[in-house]
C-alpha cells in the first residue's frame, strides 16, 4: 500500500499526556485541501490516522491513544481526539473541541468550538455539537439535531431529528428529545442555584434538575417531599411558565 503521509521524527515531536506525538507530512495530494509536502497535525502512530481515503489531521490538532480517524473525516485547529474514540465518514472535529473515551463521531457530524464528546457518546448523521456543549455517558445526538451553548446531554439521553438543545439546558437519564422539540431552561434556581430544564419527550414533558430526570408530576412530587414552601412554590411557577412557553394545552 502506498502511504499518503509519514511521521516526522524531528524537533516537532511533542509529549502530551505521557504520549509521544509526531507531526504528519503528506506524501501525496489528499482530497482538495492537502498537497504533497503539506504538514498536518500530530498523531501518536499510524493506527490513529488511516493511510486510505481522505482523512486528515490539520494544524495543531492531536489524535492519540487508541483513537482512530478514517474515511473522509477531518480534525482541525486545536482539537483533540483520544482514548478509544473514532471519527470517520465525513465527520469534522474542529476548534478546541475534544472527543475522548469510547465516543464515536461519524456521518456528516460536526463537533466544534470548545465542545466535548466523551464516554460512550455518539454524534452522527448531520448532528452538530458546538460552543461549550458536552455530550457524554451513553448519550446520542443524531439526525439534524444541534447541541450548543453550555448545554449538556448525558446518561442514556437521545437528541435527534431537528431538535435544538442550547443555553444551560441539561438533558440526562433516559430522556429523548426529538423532532422540532421545544425546550425551556431556568438557571440559578432552587436551593442549590442549579438549572431546571423542561422539554417535550416522547411521552410528554420531561424535567431534569441535577440528578433528577422524570415527568412534571414526578418532579413536583419529589420537590414537595424535599423542599421548603418557598422553593416548592418557585418550582411550581417555573413549571407553569415552561408549559406556557412550550405550548402545552390546558
SSE map:
Layout: E1 5-8, E2 14-16, E3 19-26, E4 39-43, E5 56-57, E6 62-63, E7 68-69, E8 74-75, E9 80-81, E10 86-87, E11 92-93, E12 98-99, E13 104-105, E14 110-111, E15 116-117, E16 122-123, E17 128-129, E18 134-135, E19 140-141, E20 146-147, E21 152-153, E22 158-159, E23 164-165, E24 170-171, E25 176-177, E26 183-189, E27 194-201, E28 204-209, E29 212-215, H1 216-226, H2 229-246
Helix pairs in contact: 1-2
How does this structure look, described?
This protein is mainly β. The protein folds into 2 domains: 1-117, UDP N-Acetylglucosamine Acyltransferase, domain 1 (3 Solenoid); 120-250. It has 2 helices and 29 strands. The strands form 4 sheets. Strands 1, 2, 3, 4, 6, 9, 12, 15, 18, 21 and 24 form an 11-stranded mixed β-sheet that branches. It has a 7-stranded parallel β-sheet with strand order 5-8-11-14-17-20-23, with no helix packed on it. α1 (216-226) packs antiparallel against α2 (229-246). It is elongated and about 70 Å long.
Key words describing this protein structure:
2 helices; 29 strands; 250 residues; eleven-stranded mixed β-sheet; mainly beta; UDP N-Acetylglucosamine Acyltransferase, domain 1; 2 domains; 35% strand
Summarize the structure.
By secondary structure, the chain is mostly beta strands. It is built from 2 helices and 29 strands.
Gyration radius (Cα, Å) is 21 Å
- Based on DSSP secondary structure assignment, what is the total number of beta strands? 29
Shape: elongated
Number of helices: 2
Biggest sheet architecture? 11 strands, mixed
Helix content: 10-25%
Number of domains: 2
- The N- to C-terminal Cα distance equals 66 Å
Into which percentage range does the β-strand content fall? 25-35%
* Alpha-beta content class: mainly beta
